[in-house]
Design brief:
It is built from eight helices and eleven strands. By secondary structure, the chain is α/β, with parallel strands linked by helices. Strands 1, 2, 3, 4, 5, 8, 9, 10 and 11 form a nine-stranded mixed beta sheet that branches. It is globular.
């Protein structure tokens, strides 16, 4: 059985469909509070003509946010799911969506300024090879989200580091934060590495079953946003590791909106997660 079979299901392709109905102001607020989007806001140039490739774009759920926040951006989305890409093209017919294989061979000719991905690295059988590939494929920078651990080595055995998703098992690898920083620094192409951690976001959603270490305080697991500034030949990158306030909470307005959408559109919309 393919380690990536769960991402090919129609259920995965419709997971975030309810977000189509979010008012733009609420959609913007939803995304801008995530670590990776906080880093986007800080480091991604505004009002400039840039090309951004989203790896693992699913149905293009963040395109509408990026369209409003970065109107000069050329957005390209790629995913291994045929169902997701077909859905994305129906939602946003003017956007360039492309199907890729798990090795991302199809992105070689895209030549993006920036690459963006959320959680794709944790679902790889070789996450470090994946990180190297996206860093080498971007001209200016990479933004991504992953689950990090402060204690304990990265467990690369996908029989132990895995999750249940839509009834199928898939890799789910939490990367040791120090190992990630050391690996990226040794690539000699990173001039800056910024990591923003949120220890308050743990566990799973959408009926997922995650590695038990996600739930153990002593592991020091965090949902971490990462920004990598690309500069070929850099030997000693600037490293910034920050911690997000654990007491931040999702505003009442957005919790209320979620309940309204779930009530209006039935059980399927209950998969929406904030």
């Amino acid at each position: 059985m393919s380690k990536f079979e769960c991402w090919q299901t129609k259920e995965h392709a419709t997971t975030y469909d309810a977000r189509i109905y979010y008012p733009t102001v609420c959609l913007k607020k939803l995304y801008q509070d995530f670590n990776e989007f906080i880093l986007l806001d800080k480091y991604l140039p505004k009002n400039e003509s840039i090309k951004l490739l989203e790896v693992g774009c699913a149905t293009g759920e963040i395109y509408r946010f990026l369209q409003h926040a970065y109107p000069e951006m050329e957005y390209i989305g790629c995913d291994i799911s045929k169902f997701a890409i077909e859905s994305g093209k129906k939602k946003y017919p003017n956007v360039n969506f492309m199907i890729t294989d798990p090795e991302l061979n199809e992105i070689k000719d895209v030549n993006p300024d920036y690459i963006f991905e959320r959680d794709v690295v944790v679902h790889q059988t070789d996450p470090f090879a994946f990180l190297k590939q996206i860093c080498l494929s971007a001209k200016k920078g990479v933004f991504f989200r992953l689950r990090t651990r402060d204690k304990g080595s990265t467990v690369l055995d996908v029989e132990k580091s895995c999750q249940m998703y839509h009834g199928l098992w898939a890799p789910y690898i939490m990367l040791n934060c120090d190992e990630v920083v050391s690996f990226l620094a040794d690539l000699d192409i990173c001039s800056k590495i910024v990591i923003l951690k949120n220890y308050a976001i743990l566990g799973g959603h959408h009926g997922r079953y995650l590695p038990k270490d996600c739930y153990l305080d002593e592991t020091g697991t965090a949902e971490s946003g990462v920004y990598i500034e690309i500069d070929q030949g850099t030997k000693r990158p600037e490293i910034i590791i920050e911690k997000k306030d654990e007491n931040e909470r999702i505003p009442f307005l957005y919790k209320f909106l979620k309940r309204v959408i779930q009530h209006s559109f039935g059980p399927k919309s209950s998969r929406v997660w904030w």
